[in-house]
């Protein structure tokens, strides 16, 4: 059994004497020691945009990054900006770690978002769209089409588009219509040819139809026209007998920040379904318009939508560039990243050619660490659950599910296991943002199949990635455990970078058994041995580890801290890292998105380095590595350093102990932090600077490409033996 050096690192009663561990360092830090989290998030989306602007990025991938930027920004407004506005309007305390008035923060967010949206539009109009045209993929306007092409598209419009359009007049008999969030709309002004009266109409661009319509051609060049452009050039068909004076595009973003009041006497599902209905009618928070919209039309929208000038985003060219996702799926290998086929982890490769690997036998031989998407999710996590479902010796399966899909082989494996008589528990987090409705549907599907479905604890999201299989072997029960950093989702596993640890370690199995009991029942577990679990003890456990490195450094012992997360926001963690830095501990932070920590501030964070890496895969894993005077304490898991993760979610980190796994993680971190590696560097002022080429203009090392190559070599070397 592996005993941790951290006592009481669990989930349960708060019975630790944490004050006894308070550091003796000076806590009188400067008031401006944190970067604003919202502006830091916008800086992250700017890094996404920089990949789209980079001519070294494959062309269709550049289009994809433009679409990702647009999608990201939509969610930022729907959730983060909406949440800030809601709290301001209702008089609630606004969480801000920069000591500034919320309205000032909101004004800064608006200014930066305006700047980025203009840069985003320019990247499409002046960089990516012309480059695509040179490569034989054109997005054209109506007047660029030949007569024959226009005739063909008119026929398409009449047969496929016209029947589903619903023009809505606005006059004393027809009130201004409800405008759904993220819908693309045409604001149209028409004149009655007989009376001369001018009226206003709204036309919604159908969301279920392709936004980019392919123009019939000879096949040498792919040409597309936007659906809204096609509709705009046939408005006369929609308003016969009327003169179309003018038309303009607009798009509305609504508040979709959900607030679920959980009552133990009320069904969580019922409360969630009610909130989903309310979310559709959230107040407007952003209005995007084309830069040619006249004042008359804009005044109508401002009045009817009750929106301020600050919330209006006037943009050149096309609105809603999420439409570029469809372009990025074009089959042009020369314009994409080279294809990558995930490898089966060495431990899970079948002994016999064309045979099926025995996943349980492989895990019994020793802990297995898998790295997705470089190593296959299908032949590791999915195969693990599928083997468990059909194995007659498996008695029970317990699993958390945060984001997956109803047709997922993971869900099907749980259904198969339940239908074969096994005890199956699925803890489904139905509050996973924007997946709520889908999660409710497949949670009920699991229940109908006999799976015991639970929804966690009141007031907490269950974000941990855990699976426990109980198997009878020679009259005793053995625990097979999986703790991961990513969702049990086969689709995103091909796009998200994540780690997962498989183990038969009895202590991990007992820890997971206790944790599942607390999540599904009423047990209150105080201590875990190889896990760190939020919300009560994960932050404390990490601060203890950071504080130990600080004291080791002061004592002249080896000390080092390395953390890889999606977001670094929590003030207590950041202050602990500042104290460690002031004691001389080298601190390396590898963050994908938000970072409120200021590195390189003299006397405060001289020893802290922050890097960010973005690329073809979304960096999603979380690693926590502490030198511990030569006895490394290394954890992987689901938690980011944010208040919601540490205070309002069930999160779990598992300690990694196998020497070869510690070496693998350390080598990856070495590569990420190297000056020879392509990455963004954060300075003390919150500015991210990209380092992608060396002094000779040659490309720096790409971490993801290097990892692919390293895993491929690992497989080949095994084959040679």
UniProtKB/TrEMBL annotation:
* Protein's job: Catalyzes the reversible transfer of the terminal phosphate of ATP to form a long-chain polyphosphate (polyP).
Active-site positions on this chain: 463 (phosphohistidine intermediate)
Q: What family name appears in the similarity comment?
A: Belongs to the polyphosphate kinase 1 (PPK1) family.
**What reaction gets catalysed by this protein?**
[phosphate](n) + ATP = [phosphate](n+1) + ADP
PTM comment: An intermediate of this reaction is the autophosphorylated ppk in which a phosphate is covalently linked to a histidine residue through a N-P bond.
Keywords, A to Z, come to:
ATP-binding, Kinase, Magnesium, Metal-binding, Nucleotide-binding, Phosphoprotein, Transferase
Identify which cofactors the protein needs according to its UniProt entry: Mg(2+)
What's the name of its gene? ppk
- Annotated Mg(2+) binding sites: 403, 433
Question: What is the name attached to this protein's record?
Answer: Polyphosphate kinase
Family annotation (InterPro entries)? PLipase_D/transphosphatidylase, PP_kinase, PP_kinase_C_1, PP_kinase_middle, PP_kinase_middle_dom_sf, PPK_C_dom2, PPK_N_dom, PPK_N_dom_sf
**What does UniProt give as GO cellular component?**
polyphosphate kinase complex
GO MF, one term, reads:
metal ion binding
Where along the chain is ATP bound? Answer: 72, 496, 592, 620
